Each structure stands twice: as structure tokens, then as C-alpha cells.
Amino acid sequence: MIKKARIFLNRILFTSFLLLFSLSGNAFSRHKGTINGSVADKATGEALPGVNILIAGTVLGTTTDMNGKFSIRRLPPGSYTLKVSMIGYEMAERKNVVVLPDKTTTLHFDLVESVIETQEILVTANKRRQSIQDTP
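Above: the chain's sequence. Below: its structure in C-alpha cell form.
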């Protein structure tokens, strides 16, 4: 009888712990905001996949999907600076992006194509004759 009571008590404690843990997770995720957006080529209007979106001064960020869309969720309310970059395009920056509790801020970026200039690289090759000797 005592063994059954312990098992019953353990189940109640375990269930209470799980319930408390799941409720506290919801409490911590409440009152956070989201930044959604899209990125396109300014000249063509085509969506740009694989663009990096970073929140300056943090380790938070994401990349655009195949349709040029992105989402950064669970951000504490505040004002942020977003930096948007992709190889072959000029970096874009948007300051004072306001995130409100339980709200979604929507942005759109048009990136301007840029030319990447490097120094000239000269590659030369010389033809050499090699002799093959028979080995015993």
C-alpha cells in the first residue's frame, strides 16, 4: 500500500513539474515581438534568396528563404538596427526598427547590385620535359 502511494505521489509531482515548466516557458516567451520581411533586387524586383539579415550588436539573425522572405522571432521589445548583406550587392542598413510586445514589424529591402573589384591575377605555365628512366 505504501509503495502504491509513493508511485501515485511521484506521478503527481512529475505532472505538476511538467505543467509548471510548460507554463513558465509560455510566460518567458510572451511579450516578445517579431520582425518579418523580404529582400529583392532593386533593378529587377526579383526576390533574393540567401541574403544575410543581422541585428547589429547581437548574435541574432537569419537568412532569406527561396522567396526572399525572412523572420526573426522572440525579440525583446526595443529599437534595433538591421544589417542586410549579400555578395554582389551593397550592404543595406535600417536603423530604429521598433519591435513591440506581441506585435510583428514588417520590412522590405531593395538591394543595389555592386561590382566586386579585385587586383588582376596573372597565371602562367611552363611546359617542362620530364625524362622517365627505367628502374631495374
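The CA atoms of residues 5 and 11 lie 10 Å apart.
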